[in-house]
Structures are given as C-alpha cells and as structure tokens.
C-alpha cells in the first residue's frame, strides 16, 4: 500500500493551541503513569458541591463495576448554567438556526438558566422526582436542550428518543425504562416538512400505560389533540412557575441519562451514563479535541437524539461556557450551500459533522461551498463512521481551504465522548485515520482468541482500561452489559469495531465486526430490521446485511423469503420498505430487497451472513467455501438474482 499523505500540525494553530505536541506527550505520559492523579486534577474543571476524594474504582472482570469520583457531589445543569452566570451571564449560550433560513434565536446563559429552571419546576409540579425517568421526544429546538438540562437539574434521568423514530420504537423505549413523563412538541420541522411528533406520542401512548403526563411545547402551532388529564401545554404550565429552581445535589455515580442504541442482537439497549465521570469527559474532550477557545462559536450538526448531540451540542460546550449552535434543518434545504451559509451568518469557528453529509455535498461540486466565505472556520471535525480519504481531502481542501485541521473523532454511545482523535495543535493528520488515543485512553487490538497484538497490525478494537465517560451499565440489565462488552475478550471493553494500527501507532477504524450496520453514521442492528420484516404477514424469513453505499457509508440490504403462495411483486417490495419505515423509522428503511426462495444455512440452521454480505457487495467471485451449506444451490440463485 502506498504511504498515505500526512498533513502536519500547522505552526499557527500549534502556537495558540491549548494542547501542543509537547503538552500532549506530557498529558499522555502522566495519564498513563498515574491515572488517579491525572483525573483528580482534571476533575477540577467541574464545579463540585463536594469534591471527590476517591477517583477511580473499576473492575472489567466478574460482575464488572465502573466508578469514578464516587464520593463527589455535583449537578450537571449547574455546571452548564449557574457557574457561568457571574462571568458570562450575557454571553450567548445557544444560537438557534431554524429550518427556515429566516428564523434564528440567540439565548444567553442567563436566559437559558431561567428557562431551564421554569421547565424543571413544571416537571416537579407534575410529580417528577430524583431518579425518575423522563422521555424527551423533541425536534431540534432550544426547548430540547432546556428539557435535557431541566431533567438534570432535578435529578431526573432523561431518555432522549430521536424524533425520527416511529411510535413503536418510542413506545419500546418508554416501556423499557418505565417512564411516566414525556416531553415533546406539537411538530418538528425538517427540510420544509413537518414531523408529527405529538401524533406519534399519542400512538405510542396506547401501549404505554405507565405514561401519565405529556408536556407539549408549541413549536409550529400545528393542530394536535390534547388528552385531558394527561397532556399539558408547556407554555401554560410554565407561565406560573418561578424562575428559580435549586439544582439537586447528585452523587457522581447517580444516573444522568439513558440513551438507547442498537446492538447485534435483541432490542436496543439502554446505555446508562452517570453524572460525574460523564461531565468531566464531556468537558475535557470538547475543550481539547476542538481546541475550544473562549468566545468561539462552535457548531455540531448532530441531532440531540443521538449521543453526539448530548455530549457535543449540550453538555460539553455548555460545561465549557461555549456558544453552541443548534440547527433545526438539514444540509440540503433550501439548497446544498446551507451549511456554509450558516457558517458565514453566525461566524462559526468550529464545525463538526458526519462523513455522510460531506459525501452528499461533494456530489454537488465545489460551487455551493465556494460561493461562501467560511473565513471564520478554524477547526473541522468528523464523526459517526470511517471517513474515506477522498471525502476527508474534499472537506480539507474545499470546505477548510487547507487552513483548518480536521479532527476525525472515533467514539460510541457507550464511550460517552471521544476516545481516539487528532488534536488540532498536537497531532499530525492522515486522511482516513482517527489517529491517536486521547490522554488516558488505552486502545488495544486483539485477535479472535483474545491475544493482544503489538505494533503495526489489525484486529478487534478494545479498551484495556476505563475512562471517566464510560457507560456504567445497560439500564435494568447488568448481565447484558457484561455479556455484550466484557465477555468476548476477558478483561477488556470490546467496542464491536475492527481497526488497523500503522507503523506510527495511528488507528484506522475499519468498521463494525458484528451484526451492526452503520447507515449515515447511525447504528442499526440487522436483527431489528429482520424482526420488523418478519412481523409482516407475507414474510416468512428475512436476513439483513450492510453493503457499501456511496453516500450512506453502508446501506441496508434485505433478503426476504415470502410465505408460500405470496407473489414477489414490485408493489410488495415497496410495501415492505414502507413497513420497516413505519415499524422502526426512516433510517431503517432497506435500500434493497432481494427475494430469496431460500437462505444459505449451515446444516445446523445458522444463516451464513458472510455469503450474504459478499453477494450484497457484488463480490460474488470471492464467496469462499460454500460446501458446508445445507443446500449450496441457494447461493447460485441468490447470485443470479442479485439486485443491481
Ligand atoms: C459506532 C458508534 C460516536 C457518536 C456517533 C455514533 C462508528 C463513530 C467513527 C469514526 C470510524 C466511527 C463505529 C462505532 N464510528 N465514529 N470517527 N471513525 N467509525 O455513535 O451510534 O454509538 O455508533 O460508529 O463503528 O462503533 P454510535
């Protein structure tokens, strides 16, 4: 393989960077030699009601127990709001840019504090207490951040459900964490279209007897049904609420939030994050990875429904007193220049998005980018999936005018925040590589038998030790937590990703090694899509795999066996795609459905996905050994009838 291009740290960036090469080396060494001392020092970035004296208490074996700062007491919302009031009360905390380019809002720290207190008091008036789970199903409006922080303020555990999920997916998540209160809006807006959030909640509520109160924010003014005794308009309830609400003292290990994420088997898991370690990690990584300087405008384009929105729109930036931009819209509305117009309009300095967006915008060429200035941009970030070198270089040359370093940040819902990434002033970049671990992060590559591999090599990406932002358990199912993450390779946290490490120690993430697919930076369990498909009356069996997709990174390819007597028509194909959209949400809609009279199975009945992946990827000349199949002839049929 030819030596990939290296883009060295720019001297002008390094000169003003919070972390330069020397400091990175020093931090990494101190964190490795004495993690307790290093994290005790870093914990001071957080304002504690009682500072922690016990720093780290972790075991990755047996019953797996992860505790950081365990005798510390704090409140996450106070760290994002109250502590900034004296010094930056009038600074803008959130710039909100509407779906409609004519709409924007600027909310100061003082205003945000007041609104969070009001919402917290509304929740209290509805009976929400410390430890209760509150579901948040919101569009990208300021009140989404307010809802999150209001929960944190009173010690309620928020479970944000992405607004693109279906009523069924929402219902499953409400049920799993037994949530009695939900915060939503009448409708959301995206790309000029309306999303019927409240109507979805009404549909979900039918199977959620535990749901007692629904707080509805008026966002679009669209017509909604309000159910007496259950539904409350936020503006009406808030009108009489005091603008002060003391933050609840929380133990560092008290839960802060649950966020559901897909795995290789079963229903989505409720990833549980606690308060102290998560806040330290959110603040630490946001500050250093983006080299955030006071006064800068920072924009992460994610939705608050994903972990990226939690850590890098809300908690990290606000903990650091940053100005964070929240965007309601999409990259191509009204046109494909929108991102860069927003950058110019609000003088954005740091911009963080996903490779799928970059690839989609690349198709339109340089024009829509080059007609904007983007002179304010200083640092660019990427997250969610491997960024191919071609997209990386386009981002670097066209968007950043070769002036802005790119930080390709590898992490997961489970990790709470970034683990592997370049630092703008410290680490030379290689297009396509997430580069090196942050201080205190210990990645290891292991082979299939759990042997740790040294040097330049490729293997399963694990973490050999804990970091403060790590998830603590699967909500309500600690056994599943142990099984999923700690049983494959003893003593290590297993990420589910594969990676290559080059001769400079740089990590190149190669993608999931399990039955999880990454569609446009969003995680989808193949088992979930399969169970949605087989729930359709005409489907007997389904097998779902990922396949390379130009824009989405991976697309969803479904092999479907119909029940006897059903005709495989074009109409039924469309119906099944719509069915999955309705069952799970638009992100789960298959890109291709191939009719499969039979599926390749071993004699013991196990579906050989390796073969299905090869056929979907059109790599049919390297199918490998098919002799162990119960009926090798099914493969010939599948190859012949592959979807173009
Ligand atoms: C999976 C986690 C991290 C927040 C958004 C997604 C993939 C994430 C990168 C990257 C290569 C990446 C991994 C990971 N991934 N970032 N920079 N390079 N792959 O969070 O839904 O929990 O998904 O996304 O496969 O395991 P998530």
TrEMBL record:
UniProt PTM: Acetylated. Deacetylation by the SIR2-homolog deacetylase activates the enzyme.
Keywords: Acetylation, ATP-binding, Ligase, Magnesium, Metal-binding, Nucleotide-binding
InterPro entries xref list: Ac_CoA_lig, ACAS_N, AMP-bd_C, AMP-bd_C_sf, AMP-binding_CS, AMP-dep_synth/lig_dom, ANL_N_sf
Keyword Secreted part of the UniProt annotation: no
GO biological process: acetyl-CoA biosynthetic process from acetate
Reaction it catalyzes: acetate + ATP + CoA = acetyl-CoA + AMP + diphosphate
HAMAP family: Ac_CoA_synth
Function: Catalyzes the conversion of acetate into acetyl-CoA (AcCoA), an essential intermediate at the junction of anabolic and catabolic pathways. AcsA undergoes a two-step reaction. In the first half reaction, AcsA combines acetate with ATP to form acetyl-adenylate (AcAMP) intermediate. In the second half reaction, it can then transfer the acetyl group from AcAMP to the sulfhydryl group of CoA, forming the product AcCoA.
Family matches, as NCBIfam families: Ac_CoA_lig_AcsA, PRK00174.1
Family per similarity comment: Belongs to the ATP-dependent AMP-binding enzyme family.
Protein name according to UniProt: Acetyl-coenzyme A synthetase
UniProt organism field: Acidiphilium multivorum (strain DSM 11245 / JCM 8867 / NBRC 100883 / AIU 301)
Gene symbol of the encoding locus: acsA
């Amino acid at each position: 393989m030819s030596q990939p291009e290296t883009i060295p740290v720019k001297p002008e960036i390094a000169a003003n960077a919070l972390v330069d090469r020397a400091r990175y080396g020093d931090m990494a060494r101190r964190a490795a030699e004495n993690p307790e001392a290093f994290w005790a020092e870093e914990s001071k970035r957080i304002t504690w009601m009682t500072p922690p004296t016990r720093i780290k208490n972790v075991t990755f074996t047996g019953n797996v127990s992860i505790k950081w700062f365990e005798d510390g007491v704090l409140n996450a919302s106070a760290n994002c709001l109250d502590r900034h009031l004296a010094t930056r009360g009038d600074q803008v905390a959130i710039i909100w840019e509407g779906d409609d380019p004519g709409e924007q809002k600027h909310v100061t720290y003082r205003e945000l504090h007041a609104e969070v207190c009001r919402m917290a008091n509304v929740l209290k008036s509805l009976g929400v207490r410390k430890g209760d789970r509150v579901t948040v199903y919101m569009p990208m409006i300021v009140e989404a951040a307010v809802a999150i922080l209001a929960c944190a303020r009173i010690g309620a555990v928020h479970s944000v459900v992405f607004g693109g999920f279906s009523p069924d997916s929402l219902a499953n998540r409400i049920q799993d964490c037994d949530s009695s209160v939900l915060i939503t809006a009448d409708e959301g807006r995206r790309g000029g279209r309306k999303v019927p959030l409240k109507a979805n909640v009404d549909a979900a509520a039918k199977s959620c007897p535990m749901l007692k109160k629904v707080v509805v924010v008026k966002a679009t003014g669209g017509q909604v049904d309000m159910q007496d005794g259950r539904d409350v308009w936020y503006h009406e309830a808030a009108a009489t609420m005091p603008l002060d609400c003391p933050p609840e003292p929380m133990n560092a290990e008290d839960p802060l939030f649950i966020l559901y994420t897909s795995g290789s088997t079963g229903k989505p898991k409720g990833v549980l994050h606690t308060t102290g370690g998560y806040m330290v990690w959110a603040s630490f990584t946001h500050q250093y990875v983006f080299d955030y300087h006071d006064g800068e405008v920072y924009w992460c384009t994610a939705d608050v429904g994903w972990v990226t929105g939690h850590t890098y729109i809300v908690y990290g930036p606000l903990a650091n007193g940053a100005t964070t931009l929240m965007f309601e819209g999409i990259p191509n509305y009204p046109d494909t220049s929108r991102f860069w117009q927003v950058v110019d309009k609000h003088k954005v300095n740091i911009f963080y998005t996903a490779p799928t967006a970059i690839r989609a915008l690349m198709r339109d060429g340089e024009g829509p980018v080059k007609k904007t200035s983007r002179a304010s941009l200083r640092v660019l970030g990427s997250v969610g999936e491997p960024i191919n070198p071609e997209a990386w270089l386009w981002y670097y040359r066209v968007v950043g005018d070769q002036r802005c370093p790119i930080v390709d940040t590898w992490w997961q819902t489970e990790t709470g925040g970034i683990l592997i990434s370049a630092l703008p002033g410290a680490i030379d970049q290689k297009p396509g590589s997430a580069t090196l671990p942050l201080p205190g992060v210990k990645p290891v590559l292991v082979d299939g038998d759990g042997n740790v591999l040294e040097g330049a090599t490729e293997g399963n990406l694990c973490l050999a030790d804990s970091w403060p932002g790590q998830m603590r358990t699967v909500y309500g199912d600690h056994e599943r937590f142990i099984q999923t993450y700690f049983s494959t390779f003893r003593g290590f946290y297993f990420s589910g990703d594969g990676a290559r490490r080059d001769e400079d120690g740089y990590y190149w993430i190669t993608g999931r090694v399990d039955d999880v697919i990454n569609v446009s930076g969003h995680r989808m369990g193949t088992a979930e899509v399969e169970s949605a498909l087989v729930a359709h009356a005409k489907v007997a069996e389904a097998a779902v795999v990922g396949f390379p997709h130009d824009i989405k990174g991976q697309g969803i390819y479904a092999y479907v066996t119909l029940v006897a007597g059903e005709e495989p028509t074009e109409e039924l194909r469309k119906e099944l795609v719509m069915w999955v959209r309705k069952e799970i949400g638009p992100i789960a809609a298959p890109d291709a459905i191939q009719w499969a009279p039979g599926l390749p199975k071993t004699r013991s009945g196990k579906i050989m996905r390796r073969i299905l992946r090869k056929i979907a990827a059109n790599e049919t000349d390297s199918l490998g050994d098919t002799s162990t199949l119960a009926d090798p002839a099914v493969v010939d049929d599948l190859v012949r009838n592959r979807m173009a």
